């Protein structure tokens, strides 16, 4: 365990520490960061930087009002929105999504998604597994945690799995973690105390002076440690741990002040009060998270997750949709345009979906209720064949009638795009048993 020791140092809480910092403090579960890095190195060889950005629409977005409109259905089914043409002949989507419509050639829509269990939970969207399936001890890991284990970090100073979501009041919606893989493969969440430690928020001159002293001591320690690194006192994993401590790569990636103002403006303004009940519940429309996702991938993240707003509209479905869906349209369109302009579209797969769909029939409160029978997803990038619609539903949007696509097929496609063969790749659970990443091992043939 590497320690930084100085009797004279006081931290911001004014309590002296003989061992005020140790590399193990960056990890969880008692593991030191060098141990984490060593485990990641042993878990799999590094490859080209393929990545996934998953945008989770908590609550179940109404597929009939976004991607699968039914204009010829009865009034109590079709709703208030009209379909509009896209730049791909024959494909129509909601009038609330004109930006995505104008670049539909860069997207694919899955209208016949099946396999949802109907629970308000991000579990299936994060792991690809059913709740009711037998889980190994510790539980199934999320996609990002599996990538952390199988592929390791792209850059030793950037976590492979980053979650940009707000903490949501309904806990099951929060993005899932490492399961049986352990906390060393948990998502890095740059909010709360983490962001407070990365930014200067209302810091007094005294506290700023103390932090300056801390940085000076870190600089002094690094100069001393470099001697140990060059003479072989420390191993390569400790060197990587020191790089994490001293690198500004991730901090800069999360600093939007370093982004071109024109690019920032394209993504739109954050709307934390988009819904009158969302501000203190984590159901906010933070447009900048789409941009942060791109920047995090550029910095070296393999998987970035981000929740957006809230879609559990049992009442006033259409009023809420008019506020939320245009913002989603702007953010997603800006992200895909940005990835294409930067030449990242072949490597980065973007997935936009929620845990299930909504009832075809509008209820007495002008809302739509839970509907696990079928829902929709939007996919882009990853070198996939885009500009198409996969599957269809019946005239009321109740059931998949053509080409049902299981949620696990989506995961098989994600892993395929990441260069992982799910038919042969396994990870060991807590009992040492090899576990396949998912059960369904066939990618969506229309996309790959």
Automatic annotation (TrEMBL):
It holds the Pfam family DUF1501. This is DUF1501 domain-containing protein. It comes from Gimesia alba. The lineage of its organism: Bacteria, Pseudomonadati, Planctomycetota, Planctomycetia, Planctomycetales.
